[in-house]
Amino acid sequence: MQILGLINELIGLPELASEHGSMVDHMLEMVHWLITVLLIGWSAFFVFCLWRFRQKRNPKASYVGVRGHASTHVEIGVVVVEAILLLGFAFPLWAVRSSEFPTGDDVVRVRAVGEQFKWTMHYPGPDGTFGMTKPELISGQNPLGRDLEDPNGKDDFVFTELVLAKDRECIVTITSKDVIHNLSLHPMRIGQDAIPGTIADIWFKPIKTGRWETVCGQLCGAGHSGMVGYMEVMSQEDYDAWFKENTPALTEDKEPEGVATAKENS
Ligand SMILES: [Cu+2]
What's the 184 CA to ligand 1 centre distance in angstroms? Predict the structure, then answer.
């Protein structure tokens, strides 16, 4: 166990499965070291003050207070460390996540639509372009209101789980049908609010195959705690097979078949 991974080990972070996640963990570790030092330092100072300024030794209260500059220097030191954490670690990490989105045909694109109390994933099919969705078309058989007349949507499909390919960057576009939810992907060290009427993109690169739970990170109603979804990262080969299996045949103009469900989850 490395000394720099000690606190993360103690607090038991979930398994890490994304490329940028180690930087998030590194920052978490640094923040925890800072607050550990602050907790010990300020606690010791507090106990020292209780002893040093006890009533027996100081029968008359001092109206001048602290005369030395030590505490000011310590305060400045804390501000400097916090500035380094914020400007040196947090902002650069956030800037890459929020502005340097991957482009190209190789990027896996998914729409994640939250509702009380589940997620539905919308895949654009082989053409890589999502068909239009309209709220007035939403029904039991068409939970996302996909417009079946839209040529871009002919090859789209929906799925109950977030399925991704290992070592391929992905962009997940998140929205909600009703109230505010949050798609929290702990192994990917990323999460995003799903806000009705808006869309928000997140991107990351899974580097490990596996299957994990996803949780809703916003208290969204009575069934919030049961809003557990699943995320599966497959090898490229398995992902291709899964994608092909779920892509509707383009020759037939058929009605949507509802939402395909992962076999292990049913
Ligand atoms: Cu929710």
Answer: 10
Mean pLDDT of the chain: 90
Residue 239 · residue 165 · CB < 8 Å: yes
| CA 2–ligand 1 middle distance (angstroms) | 37
Q: How many whole angstroms from 59 Cα to the centroid of ligand 1?
A: 59
Q: Let me know: does 111 contact 122? Beta carbons within 8 Å.
A: yes
Distance (Å, rounded) from C-alpha 31 to C-alpha 33? Answer: 5
The answer to whether the beta carbons of residues 206 and 235 sit under 8 Å apart is no
The pLDDT tens digits for 155-186 are 999 999 999 999 999 999 999 999 999 999 99
CA of 112 to the centre of ligand 1 (A): 12
111 Cα–ligand 1 center, Å: 16
pLDDT of residue 2: 66
**Spacing, Cα 118 to ligand 1 middle (Å):** 7
Asked if residues 237 and 197 have their Cβ atoms less than 8 Å apart, the reply is: no
Is CATH 2.60.40.420 correct for 108-265? Answer: yes
Confidence band (pLDDT; 50, 70, 90) for 230?
A: very high
* Domain spans in the chain, listed from the N-terminal domain onward: 3-99, 108-265
* 50 phi/psi in degrees, rounded to 5: -60, -40
